User: Fold this.
Amino acid sequence: MFLAARKSNVWPRLPAEEPDIDQQIMGNVAFDMGKGTTFRVSGAYSVNSRTVFPSENSPTSPGYLNFLWDNILNVQYRRTTNTQLGIRFNKVLSPKTYYEIKLNALLTKRREGSSPFEEDRDDLTTSFRLQNTLTLQQTPPDGFVTGAGRDNFYNDKTSTYSLDAYVTSQVAKSHLINAGVQANIYRLDIKDHYSLSGEFPIYSEYTAKPYEVALYTQDKIEFQGMIANVGLRLDFWDLNTKFLPDLYAPYLAFLSDSNKWVYVGKDALTQKIPKISRLQPRIGVSFPILEQTVFHFNYGAYVQRPGFQYIFESRNLISTTTGKIELSPQVLGNPYLRPQTTYSYDVGVVQGFGEGFTLDISGYYKNVLDLIQQAQISSECGSYYPSYNTYINRAYADIRGFKIILSKRKGPYTGSINYQYSVATGKSSSVGSMVPTFHRDQNGLITLNAENTAKKDILLDFDREHNFLIDLGYTTESDFGFKAGGIYPLGDITVYLHSYIRSGRPYTYSSKAGEFEVNNKRTPWERNTDVKISKKIKKFFGTTATIYLEIFNLFNDKTLNYDYIFRSDNAGSPNPNAGIYENVPLDAPNGLLHMNDKYPASLQLALDKSFLIYTNEPRSFNLGFTVEF
Assistant:
């Protein structure tokens, strides 16, 4: 039996009304029922409360202006609750065969919103606005905001019930069979509200009960030094929902007798979504070609179901332009999305050199199809002109490269040196990047506007051409060095170093107005080094203790904030901050480090934006002491 409880209060780095609170209790009970049979029941319950500061900090929407001067009304508060219950049953049928059955339930709740606004405002401010329930004050002359209550609210509930059962059997000397079934039943209950302070608030409310089942089998074959893993997996999804039969006419129906479009609301959701299944073969082979040389090859097809937010999203504003309450779609999910499929290839050679050294040289290629991309749908339906965003399978990615890994696993010196070269190309770096528009006119003719999309394959913004990773460790013997007072001060000391240096990420930069190529430059190289030094103390009051010192970011390197400085907009156009970065020194009076985003031309309103310009933390130290019981 095991039972544990935990509670922690941690104040955010910025001032807040309440600390961040984590409360958790967990436990399990195991039963040995004899004859190779075990049964375990486990459960966990956690409650988390958080202060949520505005995270959006684009050049056009600098979120930090909304909370640096007002940490009460300009923040949100999130409370999440997770409940988990599981049972596991194991049975050994024979020395060669056993099976396991696991059942699990996970229930989650999330509520997030703002504090009430204050009714009496200070008359000294020059800008004041009251919209429905929230207020906004801009403080002259720097543009910082007070009292700008956040107007998005979330109330989400999810339930997941899972089955995972498998059987493993050594059916023959050279064959180890593993086969199983996995199943998940979901329930989604989403009630999110956006822009409640505006004239047209947006509501995202939907429920869904999808389920999925997977069957798989794998045979591990060992024969005369060769090891092969051959597997097959079948995934099956049923979204268990109805949707729009006509994506270009949401919430509308065409009356043929009167030859006109009419609003029918959610009664238009009549199309049953077909079930989806995908078969995925996989094989991995390794065998010796020399005494200390092993060849390996892997191929696999991997399928990933689209996220539920892309399938079931139903974000609408309430329109009264016709004199009646009608839903006007803003974002609608697409249940017709195909699953993302990745075909992965890997081939290489591992060479042993003795003394614990190995060299692994391998190349890889991944072909990723049916990636999800946001799209805009518009149409002409009589007196209705619906226009909204949805999601389609339009993007793809090719990821290829090679890696060289030199490792040492034996002796006082251990570690590895890893170099990887890779190139990732495709049509779109993210779901919301380079959005195409599809339009259907009154005659039913559909046209594509691809002006905001890439005309050719581009480097994806997560591509890093060169990656160097170093892990080195050294441990002294117990009797290493001199002896003093019956102990060896330099014995049982471990020094561990973890370091990386890698290429920057691609970004779009234009030197002339209106002329640019997507992702035609790279951000600066990024690097970091962490060190840990520990000393094991044996016979410490009858047990073993360890004292250690950790140094993070040893050389105090700085990593620039890609999202704020370099990330392009949805059309792939250059980030205006990238132009400032290219032409003005970072720490200049009119550089990004001090520039006021609200009034960039005013040097008198400069401020220190180190918290925004850099994404990593400065050099820090952690001194600790542990005792083994």
